[in-house]
Amino acid sequence: MHIIGLLVCAGMLQLLLLGGSHCAAFYTEKPSYIESCRIYEPAFTNCSTRSIQRFMNQVIKGIPEIEESFGPIDPMKQDQLVFQQDNSDVATISANLTDMLIRGFGKMVIKESRVSKTDFSWLTKIYLPTMRLDCKYQMIGRILLVPLRGGGDMFLEIDDLNILMSTKTSLYEKGGYTFYNITSTRVKLDVGKVKTHMEDLFNGHSKEVERGANQFFNDNWRDLFEALRPLVDETVERTMLKLLQNMFSLIPANFFVEDIPNSLNLYGRKTQLIA
Ligand SMILES: *[C@@H]1O[C@H](CO)[C@@H](O)[C@H](O)[C@H]1NC(C)=O
Ligand SMILES: *[C@@H]1O[C@H](CO)[C@@H](O)[C@H](O)[C@H]1NC(C)=O
Ligand SMILES: *[C@@H]1O[C@H](CO)[C@@H](O)[C@H](O)[C@H]1NC(C)=O
User: Fold this and answer.
1) How many angstroms is it from 48 CA to the middle of ligand 1?
2) Where are the domains of the chain?
């Protein structure tokens, strides 16, 4: 059992520090699966990489508070994605993805976890042996010159996925601890191999043309991935942002970076209290 603090939000001081935001439960005692690192020591990146990997292993096994609000990590359910991309060289797509199920984050390898000493943003290298997305799609547009108008089940499977993730954070104080506010995350993806299948590409009108188009996409998977890259980027970014926001609103930044500065010292007391 870990100790969970429930912040009482009635106090004037706490309201000020929280900027008037909501009350939330969070860990007030460091769980044994988190290894603390010191950012002003030379081996920090090694320590941080090891620490984040151990933490992710525990998240994958299941941390009750994270499962409760986010759900399981693998397979991972996601809300719908409405996607619009106009006039790129390779694709014009308007797509709605629903009933999204993402597999593969359970085998996540943290290859490197860097934290900036100046603004506490992160640069994280992640490797997934396989990531597979299953969903229902509605799509109108053109991929690799193939005009599409259809909808049905689809999957996209990526082998050897390297994710370079840039995360922006700001620090804030809650209940005497410093926390990360995860404000944005951007990814650059590098893929080994991509497979796909889209059912009812032409509203099921011509099964033969559908088979041909799927064959063509798989034969030309590098070009297919370039066409779908913005859509896949957005899927991964949204997934990671939600997961990170969930994890780091629950666990203080101090538990990961023991010597992280207090946000009041980092940004200056005046601006923080007034903001
Ligand atoms: C960090 O780990 C790498 C290998 O994983 C090693 O080569 C390097 O010397 C380590 N750096 C420090 C500062 O411990
Ligand atoms: C996606 O859904 C929106 C409404 O949420 C709709 O306006 C749009 O036409 C849909 N796009 C496709 C390709 O079905
Ligand atoms: C976190 O950042 C967002 C946007 O940058 C901001 O609106 C929100 O108030 C911040 N939350 C806290 C607790 O600092």
Assistant:
1) 12
2) 4-267
Kindly state the average pLDDT of the residues 204-228.
90
What distance in Å separates the CA atoms of residue 20 and residue 234, rounded to the nearest whole number?
Answer: 31
The residue whose CA has the least distance to atom 14 of ligand 2 is: 138
pLDDT at 116 over 80: yes
Contacts of 43 (CB under 8 A, 6+ apart): none
Please name the residue whose Cα sits nearest to atom 5 of ligand 1.
46
pLDDT tens for 68-107 read 989 999 999 998 889 887 766 667 888 999 999 999 999 9
Q: Which residues line ligand 1 (CB under 6 A)?
A: 42-43, 46
Distance CA 228, CA 233 (A): 9
The pTM (predicted TM-score) of the whole model is 0.86
- pLDDT value of position 87: 65
Nearest ligand, CA of residue 26?
A: 3
| Any atom of ligand 2 within 6 Å of the Cβ of 214 | no
Residue nearest to atom 13 of ligand 1 (CA): 43
pLDDT of the residue at 24: 64
CA–CA separation, 210 vs 213, rounded Å? Answer: 5
Burial class, 170, CB count within 10 angstroms (exposed 0-12 / middle 13-18 / buried 19+): middle
Query: pLDDT band for position 1 (50/70/90)?
Result: very low
End-to-end CA distance of the chain: give it in Å, rounded. Answer: 36
How is domain 4-267 classified at the CATH fold level?
Bactericidal permeability-increasing protein; domain 1 (3.15.10)
Please give the number of the atom of ligand 2 that sits closest to the Cα of 95. 13
Task: Please give the number of the atom of ligand 1 that sits closest to the Cα of 42.
Answer: 13
